[in-house]
Amino acid sequence: MSSKNIRFKEDDAGYSMKEAINEAKRCLNCKKPSCIKGCPIANDIPDFIYQLSMGNMGAAMKIINEKSNLPAICGRVCPHEKQCEGHCILQKKGESIHIGKLERFIADFDADMDLIRDRLPQKTRGKVAVIGSGPAGLTVAGDLARSGFN
Ligand code: SF4
Predict the structure, then answer these.
(1) Ligand 1 mutation target, pool 85, 89, 91, 99, most atoms within 8 A of CB
(2) In this structure, are residues 144 and 120 in contact, taking their beta carbons and an 8 Å threshold?
(3) Which of 6, 64, 112, 142 could form a disulfide with 69 if both were Cys (CB 3.0 to 4.6 A apart)?
(4) Pocket residues for ligand 1 (CB within 6 Å)?
(5) What is the pTM of this model?
(6) Residue 13 to residues 19, 20, 88, 104, 105: CA-CA distances in angstroms?
(7) Is 138's pLDDT higher than 70?
(8) From the CA of 117, how far away is ligand 1's center (Å)?
(9) Distance between CA 96 and CA 2 in Å, rounded?
(10) pLDDT at 5
């Protein structure tokens, strides 16, 4: 089989819109959110979940993008059970919010709908070459593009 015929199918189909919003509505929007303490990049988890619970996908994505350029990946591969979800206050009851799945849902919705983003600044600050296309390289490239570099 040639490589172009290989297709990967995810075992977990992810949330439907209704499931994602219902899951988001379970979040207690804690005043001192322990989930953020468990996140290596201190993503504003309660805020993006709150926006999702109101159906504001663009606003939810904007909050995520303040800290992360790769939510579709992080939502799938981060060890959430040790990080954000492991620190969620509801974990004590074994009912922590499925934060990774919500992050993935928002990122996939954004990509599927090709949502309009904030206007980027003109690229007037010159060109930068980023060596490497792993998570660090992609993050740097995204941040530089947002800051007006080509
Ligand atoms: S700790 Fe859990 S319930 Fe509290 S804000 Fe974070 S995700 Fe929501």
Answers:
(1) 89
(2) no
(3) 142
(4) 27-30, 33-35, 45-46, 88-90, 97, 99
(5) 0.85
(6) 12, 12, 24, 11, 10
(7) yes
(8) 27
(9) 42
(10) 63
